[in-house]
Amino acid sequence: MIVLKIAFRNLLEHKTKTAIIGFLIAFAIAFLVAGNSLMDSVKAGMRTSYSANYTGDLIVHGVSEEDFSLIPVGPATVDIPILPAFSELRAAAEASPLVAAVLPLISGSASLSIDEETVGLSFLWGVDFTDYERMFPDSLRFVEGGFPSDSGAFVILSETVRDDAEKEVGKKIRIGDKVTLGGFGAAGSRLREATVAGVFSFERGGAQLDRVSIVDAGTLRSLKGMGSVVAAAPVAGTNSVDGTGTGTEIATEAAFSEDDLFGSGDLLASEAKTETESNTATTRGPMETGASVDTGFTSAELDSILGDVSVRDKYSVVDSSAWNFLLVRTADTGSISAVKKSMETEITRAGVQAEVSDWRWGAGLVADLAFSIQIVFNAIVLIVSIVVVIIIMNTLVISVTERIPEIGTIRAIGGRTGFVRSMIVWETLSISVVFGLVGMLIGTAAIVVSGLVGLHAADNMFLQLLFGGSVLRPGLSTGALAWSIAATAVIGTLSSLYPTSVALKISPVKAMQKG
Amino acid sequence: MAIIRLENVKKNYPLGKTQVQAVKGVSFEIAKGDFISIAGPSGSGKSTILNMIGCIDTPSEGIVEIDGVAISGMKDRDITNLRHRTLGFIFQSFNLIPVLNVFENIEFPLLLGDKPVPKAERREWVNFLIDEVGLSAWAKHRSNELSGGQRQRVAIARALATKPKIVLADEPTANLDSATGEAIIELMKRMNQELGTTFVFSTHDQKIVGIADHVIRLKDGLVSENYRQEGSAKDKPAKESGK
Predict the structure, then answer these.
(1) Exposed, middle or buried by CB within 10 Å (0-12, 13-18, 19+), for A339?
(2) In a 10 Å sphere around its CB, with 0-12 CB exposed, 13-18 middle and 19+ buried, how is residue A254 labelled?
């Protein structure tokens, strides 16, 4: 085919121009292959890492106007909603043959105190340790100790949190030591003691996950005041324990007025009177001023009132079925959609406000960051591609301009516009294909070498977040290769459009121009 | 019957806000098989008239007929077909395709048409033309390996490849030394006689003009002379109608 012969020979004839255009195409395609493979590896790595170690494949959770996720990004200020109709949803998930395991989980944060000295802050996941081990068997690497074998208040500390605490307190924290966790919820601040059962780090951690410790669900539930608070300040239909407004009924603080709890002026008067008259009761503070006020209460009556801790006890009651999340691991990734659909159907049937989200939601800002970076990368690729197209286009236009007499001659001796168009398009496409392949090979080689050597995040928190760990071993993405083939075709086609239009405007009379 | 006919042909070119009239009303006819020189000084309109005869430029006014077909109003595709079928071109700067060798350059016009010529037939005809122009030893060489005279011989062979009725040559000897130029004109004349192809060439070289059978002289965009030369190979009446 003569048009191909001319196209190829022209490319070989103008080696410098061909080399410039070829280098640009190869660079753009190599950048595309390597970059997209890297981004796909980051996403695939994150997905595998998060779903296998932290989030499961699906997360069932309540609904809140505020953003929240499974993995906290800072001191928890958002009151994470309790998952309504938990028991029904868990039963439904466990009954599905497509579900391999489930894990109920509470998310929160607490201060960590040792010997009454606050030594740090830790994010906390409250779980049933047996369920956790079943759900994420390879998630944790224990430095010391392990999952507790007894029930009770136990915490397994993140190695980072433990190390920071030891530095702060100036002594070693050992297995079996007691630590005090301080939580603050809608019911006020709480202190709970827990025994250190182990010290761990996540197999594929990162700066954010390294501050997560794991505690028994009862302790975290108690720290957060889950259950009593809900009952104390119910909001129609959404935040009772089961979310339906018909769950466990617990006495509310509305049943007791401040006067009932702390007394009125009459109470104080009565107290003063009691002290002066019988000397059987001693009060502190203002009472010691000796003001003589008739409270109308006897010492026995005061004992009766102040000794009554029923209200406090009711505030301390926690609902053992209160959870923030239900993590679901499917039997295989192909079942995720089906399980999600069945869980959503279950939520609708239960008539509660809850949602089913994927690992990306659970990873919160970390996943958003990776996807945002991909968007930025794609924008860079687009800009690079446009620049490459413009440079190639200009080079080809110069080439066409230099060949005006030749093209004019072809037109004069009977070459149709279609022939000229084919000649330019073939030149551009052939150079695009050849150097596009070279670019693919370079990009593939870069990814293969990176995969063998591994990309190390070192101490860079940003890269650790992105890599989902300290090392990323990227693999070649078929999607990236497909994109690069498409990009080669698009670059080749777009680059040839303007030069072709210039060539087609060359009149045969140009052949008569004196050379 | 005239194979080329021009009737009151004018050609204007825009020059800034004004129009320059390069051809001011030219009429003549050229008979089939003639060996014609369009002569005149630079700026007399030789190339413009040759371009219009070659259907690569159109007249502003008047009629140009090639082989009985008026080119005005024809579509680009039809004009291209007409050029391919009826006309051959020889350019002052040779205008060979630089990436093709001698054989491929001569073969090239045969590959552009609607009806493909069988390969064996094509090869035989191209080799015949190469022999005719005396370049058998150079068939596989590219144009940058040839002298000016050799390049113009290739151009002559290429112009004859499609067996056109008319070959147009725009100052074919301008880039050649006089001896080579004469040899080229002699070759063209031989082809004219052997193949019966009409040759129309422009020149301002009086020596070259002397070889033509029929001379049309131009001056300032008008025909100043239109005559047959004594001793010409053919003796056909030339109609003179231009000024």
Answers:
(1) buried
(2) exposed
Which residues of chain B are within 8 Å of residue A13 when distances are taken between CB atoms?
A: 98-99
pLDDT in tens, A199-242: 998 876 666 778 899 999 999 988 888 764 343 333 333 333 33
pLDDT digits (tens, 9 = 90+) for B114-135: 888 899 999 999 999 999 888 9
In terms of pLDDT, which residue wins out, A284 or A457?
A: A457
Residues with Cβ < 8 Å from A72, sequence gap 6 or more? A107, A109, A123, A208, A212, A364
Comparing A44 with A442, the larger pLDDT belongs to A442
Structural domain boundaries, residue B146: 34-58+73-228
Domain membership of residue B139 (yes or no) is yes
The verdict on residue B180 lying in a domain is yes
The three-class DSSP label of residue A216 is: strand
Q: Round to the nearest angstrom and report the end-to-end CA distance of chain A.
A: 28
Beta-carbon separation of B100 and A514 below 8 A: no
Strand locations in A14-68 (E): 58-62
Q: Do B56 and A9 touch (CB under 8 A)?
A: no
Nearest chain B CA: its distance from A19 CA (Å): 18
Does B217 reside within a domain?
A: yes
Residue for token digits 């030369």? B229
A406 and B91 in contact by Cβ < 8 A? no
Q: Evaluate whether residue B22 is within a structural domain.
A: no
| Among B91, B94, B112, beta carbon nearest to A419 | B112
Give tens-digit pLDDT for B162-182. 999 999 999 888 888 888 888
- Select the residue of A6, A10, A514 nearest B93 (Cβ to Cβ): A514
Spatial contact of A385 and A123, defined as CB atoms under 8 Å apart: no
What part of A 214-243 touches B (C-beta under 8 Å)?
Answer: none
pTM: 0.65
Q: Which of A311, A325, A401, A392 is nearest to A364 (CA)?
A: A325
> Of the candidates A362, A348, A369, which has an alpha carbon nearest to the alpha carbon of residue A67?
A362
Share of chain A above pLDDT 90, in %: 30
Among A6, A411, A415, beta carbon nearest to B99: A6
By the CB < 8 Å criterion, does A186 face chain B? no
Whichever domain contains B206, its CATH number is 3.40.50.300
- The verdict on a CB contact (< 8 Å) between B109 and A414 is yes
Min Cα–Cα distance to chain B from A422, Å:
13
Tell me whether A417 touches chain B (CB under 8 Å): yes
The verdict on a CB contact (< 8 Å) between B95 and A511 is yes
What number of C-beta contacts closer than 8 Å exist between A and B?
A: 83
Report pLDDT for A321: 79
- Whether the predicted pLDDT of A252 surpasses 80: no
* Structural domain total, chain B: 1
What is the amino acid identity at position A329? R
Average pLDDT in chain B:
88
Question: In which band, very low, low, confident or very high, does the pLDDT at A355 lie, cut at 50, 70 and 90?
Answer: very high
Mean pLDDT, to the nearest integer, of B170-197? 86
pLDDT 10s digits, A316-339? 566 777 899 999 999 988 899 999
Q: Residues A89-119, buried b or exposed e (16+ Cβ, 10 A)?
A: bbebbeebeebbbbbbbbbbbbbbbbeeeeb
